[in-house]
Write a structure and sequence with these properties.
By secondary structure, this protein is mainly beta. Helix content is about 5%, strand content about 45%. The strands form five sheets. Strands 1-3-4-11-6-9-12 form a seven-stranded mixed sheet, with no helix packed on it. It is globular. The chain has helices at about 15, 20-30, and strands spanning about 1-10, 30, 40-45, 50-55, 60, 80-85, 90-95, 95-100, 105-110, 115-120, 130-135, 140-145, 150-155, 165-170, 180-185, 190-195, 195-200, 205-210, 220-225, 230-235, 235-240, 245-250, 255-265, 270-275.
Length: about 280
Amino acid sequence: MTTVFEERYASHPADYEKYDTDRLRDEYLVPKLFTADTVNLTYTHVDRVIVGGVMPVEAEVKLETVDALKSDYFLERRELGIINIGAPGCVEVDGTVYEIGTKEALYVSRGSENVKFSSNVKSAPAKFYILSTPAHREFPTTKVGQGDAQVIELGAAETCNKRTLRKLLVKDVLQTCQLQMGMTELAQGSCWNTMPCHTHSRRMEVYMYFNLPEDQAVCHFMGPPQKTRTIWMHNEQAVISPTWSLHSGVGTSNYTFIWGMAGENHDYDDMDKVQPTELR
């Protein structure tokens, strides 16, 4: 088993304006999440979020602490959100085993010492997408199946953004310290997500795009609304959105994405909306 760890620093919007394409991708794109029997982790200093992926194939994979945390175990001072985008698998938390099917979620409490991941079938591995944030107290480790999610239908075919949003790890479903996660699936023929777009300086956000055909791509928009930039992304890649940045994308086909937030409130609707005519 291997852990691959990378650290990213927070950036100022005035500095972002000077980045070329390569620097923009180096700062915000997380290009590789899933490698066999490996824990891939990227630590961003924007709200100290850790984004990563675990794909167990040959053996069970354990979530180990990393030196940057200066902790005895990974969740000593953190909470963890998990969404499985692969085949069914299991997550064991301090001896309790949770069966996590495709597009199901698990919230793991601060103070959980042993977290292990496994796939039910070696030839069809699970792919556990994970987000972790600092936590000030413990809430119960809880599985959230698709039937437990809060479902909202958004957009319209006429504006190419008809989509189904599933709130999985949010305050209306269960208690967390600051982590929020959910999933949005675009209907066939739709390609725009989060439009009209928005910012929310109270929270940062991470998007992870998946179910995107290998020969297709998503153009992710970021930056202050009047100074937008783009990052071209492919299947199973993530992008970090600082608190000052909008976050929206358009694909060359439909796709699904996972959104995850951390910050000072749990109010999903706390957004500073930006209309398409205001963008530059």
